[in-house]
């Protein structure tokens, strides 16, 4: 008995002639190599369906092409190779290919003073597209930091000044008494409010960029902000963190400007969109600021 040929329904003609901008799969589980580490990730893979007579694409071919990502460190070159394989396997059907990879980059961060260290997780997305032979890579990174309100700090200092005048009016100042007053809760009657904040970075890489340079971008951004959230700490680290916050008072506008200037100095970045979110501890709403450079609006 002759074996029956398995039907290929996707190869049949469509009942409605219409091209589609994107067809593929989302949430594909796969491992990726980043900074020498094998990370758990999910991928969205797809191509355009430009042949309006074709009923569908070959999704299994996209899935199999992703296996290359397990074998080499993730780089623009590797991403372009995978996208090219998408199109090669869909010759006559597709002119554009897309690949988005979502993972969490784990970095071990030292404490500010003590020898302690701990792991921090940074959500990362890598979005690549190959359209009409034009290749682009964009990175999306989210990083947390602390922000102390300059207005709240000024108002707190004013209350402390008023309390000082009240407690030491018409008295000869004694060094030991003033020192004790400064260290007491009776003297420091107000403190500025701080909040955990988030910087969302969307970055477009230069076409000639050979590395993703995720860690370098994160390091530069955290250095510009000056108050990256900590992992394991001792009291000396917590005090150093309080000092860093006091020396880096910032509104959301300040944070956005700092990141803008820092990212412009990065040689591998061709454009960016920065969005900072300060999850207010005073208000029930958030304070938000955006800054962009060489970034097209939608």
Outline the structure in words:
The chain is an alpha+beta fold. The protein has seven helices and eight strands; from the N terminus they run ββααβββααβαααββ. An eight-stranded antiparallel sheet has the order 1-2-3-4-5-6-7-8. A hairpin with a 2-residue loop joins strand 4 (117-131) and strand 5 (134-148). The model has no long low-confidence stretch (mean pLDDT 92).
Features:
29% helix; 8-stranded antiparallel beta sheet; alpha+beta; 298 residues; 8 strands
Q: What's the topology here?
A:
Layout: E1 20-34, E2 37-49, H1 59-65, H2 76-88, E3 96-110, E4 117-131, E5 134-148, H3 150-168, H4 175-182, E6 194-205, H5 214-225, H6 235-247, H7 252-264, E7 269-278, E8 287-293
Question: What can be said about the biggest beta sheet?
Answer: 8 strands, antiparallel
Flag low-confidence runs. Answer: none
Roughly what fraction of the amino acids lie in strands? 25-35%
Strand order, biggest sheet?
A: 1-2-3-4-5-6-7-8
The backbone outline, from C-alpha atoms, is: elongated
- Topology as a string of helices (H) and strands (E): EEHHEEEHHEHHHEE
Task: Give the C-alpha Rg.
Answer: 27 Å
Structural class comes to alpha+beta
Mean pLDDT, all residues: 92
């Amino acid at each position: 008995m002759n074996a029956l040929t398995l039907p290929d329904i996707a190869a049949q003609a469509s009942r409605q002639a219409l091209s589609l901008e994107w067809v593929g799969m989302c949430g594909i589980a796969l491992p990726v190599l980043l900074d020498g580490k094998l990370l758990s990730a999910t991928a969205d893979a797809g191509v355009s369906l430009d042949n309006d007579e074709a009923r569908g694409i070959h999704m299994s071919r996209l899935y199999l092409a992703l296996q290359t990502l397990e074998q080499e460190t993730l780089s623009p070159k590797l991403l372009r190779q995978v996208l090219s394989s998408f199109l090669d396997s869909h010759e006559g059907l597709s002119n554009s290919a897309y690949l988005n990879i979502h993972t969490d980059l784990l970095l071990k961060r030292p404490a500010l003073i003590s020898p302690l260290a701990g792991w921090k997780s940074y959500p990362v997305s890598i979005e690549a597209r190959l359209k009409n032979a034009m290749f682009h890579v964009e990175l999306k990174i989210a990083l947390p930091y602390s922000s102390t309100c300059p207005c709240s700090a000024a108002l707190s200092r004013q209350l402390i000044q008023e309390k000082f005048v009240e407690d030491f009016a018409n008295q000869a100042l004694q060094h030991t008494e003033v020192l004790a007053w400064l260290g007491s809760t009776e003297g420091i009657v107000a403190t500025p409010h701080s909040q955990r904040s988030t910087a969302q970075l969307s970055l477009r890489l230069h076409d000639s960029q050979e590395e993703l340079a995720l860690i370098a971008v994160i390091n530069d951004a955290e250095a510009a902000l000056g108050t990256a959230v900590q992992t394991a700490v001792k009291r000396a680290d917590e005090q150093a963190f309080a000092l860093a916050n006091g020396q880096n008072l910032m509104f959301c506008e300040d944070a956005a400007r700092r990141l803008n200037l820092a990212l412009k100095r990065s040689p591998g970045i061709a454009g960016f969109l920065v969005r900072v979110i300060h999850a207010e501890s005073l208000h029930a709403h958030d304070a938000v600021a955006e800054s962009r450079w060489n970034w097209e609006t939608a």
